[in-house]
Design a protein that fits this description.
The protein has 453 residues and is an alpha+beta fold. The protein is built from eleven helices and 20 strands. The strands form four sheets. Strands 4, 5, 6, 7, 8, 9 and 10 form a seven-stranded mixed β-sheet that branches. The longest helix has 24 residues.
């Protein structure tokens, strides 16, 4: 059984990459904000969100037990084995529950509307309970999420996380019911979502992960569930600070055009802003361990004359508290400087250019696959060809390999492709599910030269 030593609560560092120079009258300021959390020494930084040993984390595992999980029968067996592996990876003292999901949600372990405390005995008991899982019934994912939210908030915990597995479409509740459940659960816990096989709906699974600030992926072969579940649980056990927000302050007259997470995956946070004052807003980022993420901000400022300078935005990492208070974790500044030096003002910051291309790549893949599904061969060919060109130009080798399973690449540089006559469902779904995963720009570049130098 796993007995993990509790890692240190991370420190946060904020770095801003931008070309702060605008032409006369220019208004849009773009910046990439890199947030890096590294372990060590800040255990007291967020006392409300890093509970004492034995109650720091709570995890709910939601296992699809609908009738389709018996086709083939090995799918249910692999799901049981994977869930047991995830339970065995729980750190001692973690509170947890296992939920069987069909057209209703049922507590498998420990039951009674409560959470178990992970130790050798409870992990073994949960494993025994999993052996009794059988497939049968429909699929209503919103009910699974609501029960998980109820259990995860039933007792004190710092980091609350869910892992959800499904093999089919959400056919026994309406899309509105699933959306309502996600709205109820958002902010209460984070959740990783997985689709096993090829009979589930990509947009449903990715929407769950996006709303609950987790990861989404496909496990086409059920035999791959166990290592994937073990990795997810190990990552969940590494989360030490919950409910971290990106707080963006802008001066009078400025407005936020968008805020997007752009690495390790594209997630649009713009519509999730929670106002914390007349000129500041919080954007949720979920739970953090030892990791790094990138965010793309665009702020529209009032136009100004050459020679003017201003603070376009102040970016802070905070743990929100009552009455708009917050525990600060890190801060960076976004500047705007107006110049008549065209060479400087038109220079693209490499980080901004890279992630702009990554977002465009994700959109091209999604539009291309949607066109292909709708029978629009010309549209699909054009968009997937553009995706091939963008993947090649940005060095996104993983995405290029996935694209090559869907199209025959004739000329990568020009994006000339031909749709394959036959594409495996698993290959198309893998490309769709992973389209928002991004490749980071590792090489650091110096800031743009200042005018006159």
């Amino acid at each position: 059984m796993a007995n993990f030593t509790k890692p240190d609560v991370p420190r946060f560092a904020v770095e801003v990459y931008q070309n702060e120079f605008l032409p006369e009258g220019g208004r849009d300021v773009n910046a990439i904000v890199t947030v890096t959390a590294t372990g060590g020494g800040t255990r007291g930084a967020a006392p409300a969100h890093t509970a004492a040993e034995g109650a720091s984390s709570a995890v709910a595992l939601m296992v699809d037990c609908s009738g389709s999980m018996d086709h083939p029968s090995a799918k249910m067996r692999h799901a049981r084995d994977a869930t047991r592996a995830a339970v065995n990876a729980l750190r001692d003292g973690t509170r947890f529950a296992v939920i069987a999901g069909t057209h209703v949600a049922r507590e498998v372990y420990p039951g009674g509307g409560r959470l178990a405390l992970a130790d050798d005995r409870t992990r073994a008991e949960a494993g025994d309970a999993l052996l009794r899982l059988r497939a049968g019934g429909g699929t209503a994912i919103g009910t699974w999420l609501r029960l998980a939210g109820h259990l995860l908030t039933s007792e004190p915990a710092g980091v609350r996380h869910g892992i959800l597995l499904t093999d089919g479409r959400n056919e026994h509740e309406t899309p509105e019911e699933l959306r309502d459940a996600l709205e109820v659960c958002a902010g209460r816990f984070t959740c990783d979502a997985r689709g096993v096989g090829t009979d589930w709906e990509v947009k449903e699974v990715t929407a769950i992960a996006s709303a609950l600030l987790g990861s989404a992926d496909i496990v086409a072969d059920p035999a791959g569930l166990t290592p994937d579940f073990r990795r997810m649980m190990e990552a969940a056990m590494g989360k030490e600070v919950a409910d971290v927000a990106l707080r963006l302050w802008t001066p009078q007259g400025a407005e936020v055009t968008f805020v997007k997470q752009v690495a390790p995956a594209v997630v649009d946070l713009t519509g999730r802003r929670a106002s914390v004052g007349p000129r500041a807003g919080d954007y949720p980022t979920g739970s953090w361990g030892d990791e790094s993420r990138d965010y793309h901000l665009c702020v529209r400022v009032p136009a100004a004359d050459v020679g003017r300078e201003m603070l376009a935005a102040r970016v802070s990492l905070v743990v929100p508290g009552p009455d708009s208070g917050a525990t600060p974790l890190g801060q960076g500044l976004v500047r705007a400087v107006w110049t008549d030096d065209t060479a400087v003002s038109t220079s693209l910051n490499p980080q901004v250019a890279h992630y702009t291309g990554q977002v465009e790549l994700a959109r091209a893949i999604q539009d291309g696959l949607a066109a292909h599904k709708a029978g629009d061969v010309d549209g699909a060919t054009a968009e997937l060809g553009r995706a091939v060109r963008l993947a090649g130009a940005s060095g996104h080798a993983d995405t290029a390999k996935l694209l090559a399973k869907v199209v025959d690449v004739i000329d990568e540089a020009n994006g000339t492709v031909r749709l394959k006559a036959r594409v495996e469902d698993a290959d198309e779904m893998t490309l769709d599910t992973r389209s928002t995963k991004t490749a980071r720009l590792h090489q650091q570049h110096p800031p743009a030269p200042r005018p006159g130098r």
